[in-house]
């Protein structure tokens, strides 16, 4: 009898361990998470507009049907990403998610404070490698550190009335998200302009 | 022989208890970091980098993307103010005012997070298209058949959830009570 009781206690304790491990492992092993669902329908390092939320085919559950939504699925291993999103009439926001859907940063048009939301996204290592003088010129550009090399940027524009959906979609269509191959080309243009100087004297008569 | 049996029993018990608890918390959610105002529940921390492991597990399982904190906050309700589950065959009235926010949207979902098909193609309201009274308060009728005013169709499904999302709002991790965030009331007014 005591042995059976001991078995049950041991089983429950072991069960608690199984529970904790499985909860922590779930985000990594989930196959139907948002990133996996969006992978087949989005391009890498480019803005892809999602189809409007519809009862029969919604790319993700619990999407807000009042919004036009576009996604940039990024991979920073090729270099930092430059993102620019024009602000729509009503409300525009940009949210950043890691590979495992942790919302690590979000900004809306009011906090961006301009007609255009411009951001540089990079890993912490890439941020640390930025030259010092770059840091100063970058003061008016927002730099976001991504905790993971891959993830999702979700661009949203509100259509306050159904009739304004086309406008909201159009404003997102003008946004861009692309890899900036900055660190190397910044030094390459220096030798490149060197050969042209002989030409200008001739042009100046 | 007995030892093998006992070990096996303990291991089976561990699997059932452990995975069962994980399944329960991932589908139903936990009370960790929840903000409950009336019938509405929000988890403001899911929009930040320090989201708890249980919320991460349930987000990974459902496949949704949580609303980021710099964007807004999402409140959901599956029951009315009297704790009665929301029934699509009944008339439910959502009325009152909402917390300060630049925009809000109210959306109706089935239990899996899909929109509910209806002939009007109306899946929710935004703060701009809603018809308000002179005092700024609004009243939304959630019902299966057409109603005057702000009618939100349920399609007659048995269970649904309402989601109120506030965008560009001071409501968030620091919010505690109804006084900081006056949420609309939800009342079932009649069932056929």
In short:
Chain A is built from eight helices and nine strands. Chain A is of the alpha+beta class and 205 residues long.
List keywords for this structure.
heterodimer, A: 205 residues, alpha+beta, 8 helices, 33% helix, disordered C terminus, B: 192 residues, four-stranded mixed beta sheet, 2 helices, globular
Radius of gyration of chain B: 20 Å
Oligomer class: heterodimer
**Order of strands, widest sheet of chain B:** 1-2-3-9-5-6
Low-confidence stretches of chain B: none
- Largest interface: which pair? A-B, 64 and 61 residues
Q: What are the SSEs and their pairings?
A:
The complex is a heterodimer of chains A (205) and B (192).
Chain A (H helix, E strand, L loop, with lengths): L1 H28 L4 H5 L8 E3 L17 E9 L5 E6 L5 E7 L4 E6 H4 L3 E8 H6 L2 H6 L4 E5 L3 E9 L6 H9 L2 E4 L3 H5 L11 H5 L2
Parallel strand pairs in A: 6-7
Antiparallel strand pairs in A: 1-2, 2-8, 3-6, 3-9, 4-5, 4-8
Chain B lengths: L1 H27 L6 E3 L2 E3 L10 H10 L9 E6 L13 E6 L6 E8 L13 E3 L11 E6 L6 E4 L6 E8 L17 E6 L2
Parallel strand pairs in B: 7-8
Antiparallel strand pairs in B: 1-2, 2-3, 3-9, 4-7, 4-10, 5-6, 5-9
Helix pairs in contact in B: 1-2
Structure description:
Chain A is an alpha+beta fold and 205 residues long. In chain A, 33% of the residues lie in helices and 28% in strands. Chain A contains eight helices and nine strands. In chain A, the strands form two sheets. Chain A has a five-stranded antiparallel sheet. By secondary structure, chain B is α+β, with helices and mostly antiparallel strands. Chain B has helices at residues 2-28, 53-62, and strands at 35-37, 40-42, 72-77, 91-96, 103-110, 124-126, 138-143, 150-153, 160-167, 185-190. The longest helix of chain B is centred in the N-terminal third of the chain and has 27 residues, at 2-28. Chain B is globular, with a radius of gyration of 20 Å. The relative contact order of chain B is 0.21. At the A-B interface, α1, α2, β4, β5 and β8 of A face α1, α2, β5 and β9 of B.
